[in-house]
Amino acid sequence: MSAGLDQSLGLAEAGQLNDRGSGIIENIRQLQTTEKGLFEQLQRGAAAMTLNSSQQQDMVNQIKNVSDARSALYGELQQNQAFYKNNVGVAHNILTQETDALEVVERELHHAEKRIGLIREQRANRLRLVEINRYYGDKYKHHTLILQYVTVVFALILVLTYLYNQGFVPAFLYTTLFVIIGTLGSYYIIKEIWDAYSRDSMMYQQYNWTGLRGVPDQDATPDGNKIPGSQTEEQQASCVGQDCCQPSSTWVPQPLNKCYPNNQLNDQVILAQFPQGIQPYNGNSELTSAFGSNELINTPTGQQLNAQLAKYN
């Protein structure tokens, strides 16, 4: 739309009209001056009796010609003004049409944005419905498995009891099978019930580890006091090892698995587990020295851990 406004509308330029009008007005003023001079000359000649009748008639004709020319210029000036008004009206109409077209396009863009927002909302709702259906589908499938275990256990116990009552199974064998079936059935049933309880409330295929294990106690000193500036649960849930500690703290590995301030690394609890002490973490040091006095460093697991820590040198 804006490119169309930059193009010529087929109308006379305002500067050209102004220049032409100024030229006409200047010509009218010159004709007025000439007519005034001729009229004064005629008055002086008539008063002094220096002009005869033919000269006076010639001068009157000249004054008439100048007056006619001046009237013609007045008419041309009026035509120019009418033409200018017509150009302004046409330009106003075109600009009004362009403005209306821009408003229509703007309304359509606004409606298109609303439709896109509705489409995104519908897509999000559909995805959420799919997730909900998937969640409850997995949940019902798991609960069905639990009910199948319960049904099988009770069916076996019922069949075993029926055979015992009919005399086909001796008492000792009945008691042994009953205990075996009851123990195995209870184990699988309780295991599946606990598994269902441990599932996440949003994704059934995942476990709610925070609810099962809780947040590790990494923000307390050995005497139970809270470390100033300790991390929040969100920060602790997304970190491992030294990353869970504040800059002025050091991660103490197993069996303590806690963050201790650097000024408390000589605590008796730490020295009891690590007689040579723990090297304070200064941003680029590693904790390999902490494992130097640990007899587990010579095991394959300890060597793998040491190799992983060596990558951060």
Rg computed from alpha carbons, rounded to a whole number of angstroms: 52 Å
The best one-word shape is elongated
Number of distinct beta strands: 2
Helix content: 55-70%
Percentage beta strand: under 5%
Note poorly predicted spans. Answer: 1-14, 215-220, 227-231, 233-237, 285-297
Please give the order of strands in the largest beta sheet: 1-2
Q: Could you give the distance between the termini?
A: 63 Å
- Give a short account of the largest sheet: 2 strands, antiparallel
Helix count from the secondary structure assignment:
8
Q: What order do the SSEs take from the amino end to the carboxyl end, as H and E?
A: HHHHHHEEHH
Mean pLDDT rating: 76
Structural class: mainly alpha
Structure description:
It is a single chain. By secondary structure, the protein is mostly helical. The chain is built from 8 helices and 2 strands. A two-stranded antiparallel sheet has the order 1-2. A hairpin with a 5-residue loop joins strand 1 and strand 2. The two termini are about 65 Å apart. Helix 2 packs antiparallel against helix 3 and helix 3 packs antiparallel against helix 4. The relative contact order is 0.04. Among the domains are: about 120 residues; about 70 residues, no CATH class.
Write a short abstract of this structure:
With 313 residues, the protein is mostly helical.
